[in-house]
Amino acid sequence: MRSLLALLLLLPACRGEPATAADCREILDRIVALELAEQGYRDAALAQRKQEIFAQRFAAELARCEGVRLPAGARECVARAGSSEQISHECLR
To answer: Residues 63-72: pLDDT tens digits?
Structure first.
């Protein structure tokens, strides 16, 4: 997932509230859901399975994400983002 890599590269530069473990997982889950939707998948069960798979695969990155500062409004931006690129290019900068 190309946006996950962008997320991990951008978060250290952010200045704002520290990300919680739940924030990091929510960002990952949102990216996975958006990437699947962009590929034409609409099955909620598939999205949930993929989110679990990627959370396990990127457990170390999720752990490093915790405590990193999020820019103001990032949580709301991630929730309403229409694409994974929007998350990496707008929400986390």
So the answer is: 999 998 999 9
Strands (E), 4-52: 17-18
* Cβ within 8 Å of residue 10, ≥6 positions away: 88, 92, 93
Per residue in 31-90, pLDDT (tens digit) is: 999 999 999 999 999 999 999 999 999 999 999 999 989 999 999 999 999 999 999 899
d(CA 50, CA 44): 10
Cα angle value 56/11/83 (rounded, 5°): 75
- How far, in Å, CA of 59 to CA of 66, rounded? 11
CA 29/CA 52 separation, integer angstroms: 8
Tell which residue, 25, 12, 3, 31, has the closest CA to residue 71.
12
